[in-house]
Write a structure and sequence with these properties.
- By secondary structure, the chain is α+β, with helices and mostly antiparallel strands.
- The chain has three domains: 168 residues, 2-Layer Sandwich (Alpha-Beta Plaits), CATH 3.30.70; 64 residues, no CATH class; 115 residues.
- 49% of the residues lie in helices and 15% in strands.
- Strands 1, 2, 3, 4, 5, 6, 7 and 8 form an eight-stranded mixed β-sheet that branches.
- Strand 2 and strand 3 form a beta hairpin.
- Helix 1 crosses helix 2.
- The radius of gyration is 44 Å and the shape is rod-shaped.
Length: 372
């Protein structure tokens, strides 16, 4: 039985991988393979120049080991700079960029030179976090190279890496010629953006739909699709709810109309016995058909009713004003100009009644817009 010799040692591991390799292959296989071969040659040159050894180039990846972390980071920087220089004349969307991760840790080295272990896995995860054309290193590597290389680092703190038990403190290495790394949105930011975009599409769809004339025999309140599927129209339920909610208001309005009608009927009954200038009997209601100029007694009775029943008083003022009572017209202008409990202010209404009062010979003060 032959036993395989396995040695455990501390090593710096460089893991590199082509960004967007599948997309490049789908676009132009021949050019992509040529770019990959050229990149492998660059990695071999730079790794060898910094006392490293390439142990695997499976697929579009490169895996190398170094005795020292400074050699691994220096090789990574040199390789990225050489790749940028190579692609200077190549359109940006055609450039084959590499992500690189470097970690310092224990590895298992077999007799054939193969390397395994957690240190290799961490380097691969760091590579996956790097931007295209960028380099990520662990805190162990940063501690080993700090002050020894002409490079700048950005502390990204401890990060959870896939299938790695403990968080790994990582740093980004600034590569000459590389564009500033794109900020990666948080999960909540992505959710918010998706929600807002979805809401925007929904509003746009509603605006478009309501701007189009409905087909003959159809209504926007009854979706055609729901009718075709035999489902109940949600618009019908909504209309029922609105009608139920509006029922009290409708009843109140009907009651007001009935009360106003009673006032008019009572006024008509009182009209034949009315003598201009004669006192009005207690409880009597002003005539709905007064003679030109109206009845001062009816006007005074409406004034007395303002506190207890302002709407009924307004009804009487309207009857008097329409039959030529200038004071009633002016009072309506004042009510709608300044407001009255139960009667909302209405600028246009007040102007109309003030104008009516002036036509009937009553002097009125101009309505001030500033009071609005």
């Amino acid at each position: 039985m032959v036993q395989t010799e396995v040695r455990q040692r501390l090593a710096a591991i460089l893991a590199a991988d082509a960004a967007g390799y599948s997309r490049h292959m789908a676009s132009d296989e021949r050019a992509t393979v040529a770019a990959l071969d050229s990149a492998r040659s660059i990695f071999r040159e730079m790794v060898g120049a910094h006392q490293g050894r390439i142990i695997d180039t499976a697929g579009d990846s490169v895996l190398a080991v170094f005795d020292a972390a400074t050699g691994a980071v220096a090789a990574a920087l040199a390789a990225q700079e050489a790749l940028f220089a190579r692609d200077a004349a190549v359109p940006d969307d055609r450039r084959l960029r590499f992500r690189i991760g470097v970690h310092l840790g224990d590895v298992m080295v077999q007799a054939d030179g193969s390397v395994y272990g957690n240190g290799v896995n961490v380097a691969a995860r760091l590579q996956a976090l790097a931007d295209a054309g960028g380099i990520m290193i662990s805190a162990a590597v940063h501690e080993a190279v700090r002050g020894k290389l002409a490079a700048s680092f950005t502390d990204l703190g401890a990060q959870r890496l896939k299938n790695i038990d403990a968080p790994v403190h990582i740093f980004r290495v600034q590569v000459a010629g590389a564009a500033p790394p794109a900020r990666r949105a948080s999960t909540w930011t992505k959710v918010l953006v998706v929600t807002l975009v979805g809401a925007g599409f929904g509003i746009a769809a509603i605006a478009y739909r309501t701007s189009q004339p409905p087909a003959e025999g159809r209504s926007w309140s009854t979706p055609v699709l729901m009718r075709a599927q035999g489902k109940p129209d949600p618009g019908e339920a909504s209309r029922e709810k609105v009608e139920i909610a509006a029922a009290p208001a409708k009843k109140e309005h009907a009651a007001e109309k009935a009360a106003a009608r009673k006032i008019e009927v009572a006024a008509v009954k009182a009209a034949p016995t009315e003598v201009p200038g004669a006192p009005v009997k207690p409880g009597a209601v002003a005539s709905a058909t007064p003679s030109p100029g109206g009845s001062d007694a009816q006007f005074e009775q409406a004034v007395a009713m303002e506190a207890s029943d302002p709407r009924a008083a307004v009804k009487i003022y309207r009857l008097l004003a329409r039959n030529g009572n200038a004071k009633a017209a002016r009072r309506l202008g004042e009510i709608y100009d300044r407001g009255l409990p139960g009667i909302a202010r209405d600028y246009q209404e007040s102007l109309a009644w003030y104008q009516k009062a002036r036509e009937l010979g009553e002097q009125t003060e101009p309505v001030e817009r500033a009071r609005r």
